[in-house]
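Researcher: Batch entry, complex prediction.
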Amino acid sequence: MPAVTELFQKTSSPDPSLEEVRETMLQLGSTLSQHALGDTARTSTEIVVTEVLNNIVEHALPTTNSGWFSVTCWRQAGCLRFEIADNGISMPHNQLPAGLPPNIDTELQDLPEGGWGWSLVRSLTQDLNYQRVEPVNTVQFVIPDAPETALEDEMQNGA
Amino acid sequence: MNLTTDTHGDAVVLLVQDPRIDASAALQFKESVRSAVDLSVKRVILNLQNVDFIDSSGLGAIVAAMKLMGKDRSFELVALTPTVQKVFTLTRMNTIFEIHDTLEDALAPETL
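Model: C-alpha cells for the complex:
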C-alpha cells in the first residue's frame, strides 16, 4: 500500500443545505467502514467533519452565490488527514475560532444551546490549520488512528 | 423527527426513533419534544438507544428540551450510544444531565 491513499473526495452541489452535510457524512461513514480503522478515529471523524461542514453551511456560505464545500480524506500511517474547503466568507480575523467551550456552570435556564463546535474540533484533531486564499477557505487537520485498538476491540467482542 | 411516547407511572419515556439528532434535525427535535410532553408530566426520560450520532446542534436541542421542562420537573437521559457518549463527555454535559445506562435502571424503584 502506498504511504498516502486518498479514501474519499466529494464536492457539494451548489448552495448546499444542512441535509447535504448529513448526506455527505453518511457517504463518508460508508466509505470509511470499508477500511480497518480504530473506533476512536471513526467517531472523531464523524464528530469533527460534521462540525466543520455545519459551520461552513451555517456561517460561511449563506451570503455567497453558488456556494460549495469539498471534503477530501487521505489515509497515512497512524492517521487520517483531511482537507475541507469552501468558497464562503472568510473566518473572522482570518483565523480559526479559539474554540473555548461555553460556560456550563450556570442556572438551568442559562445553559448554552450550542457553541461546542470548535471546541470539539480542537480537542479531537492535531495539526489544525486554516488558510484563506481568495476566494477559498481551506481547513486541514489530522485525526490519529490506532488500528490496534480496533483489533483489540474486535477480539474482545469476539471472545 | 419521530418520537414515541410511553407512560410508566409518573414518568413519560420519549423514545427517539431517528438515528441522528444533527443540525438538520435539531429544530424538529425540539418541536417534537414540545408537542409530546404534557405540562402535567413531572418526569421525562429521553431514551437515546436508537441515536447513533449527535452534533453540537443536537446537543443544544437536548439542552433546550431540558430547559422546556423547567427546574421543578425532571428531565433524564437513558442509553447513550458510544458516539453520543463521547460528545457528552467532551463537552462535560454528562455532568449536567442525569444519565442512566438502561431504561430498567431509570425506572427501577430507588434503593437506599
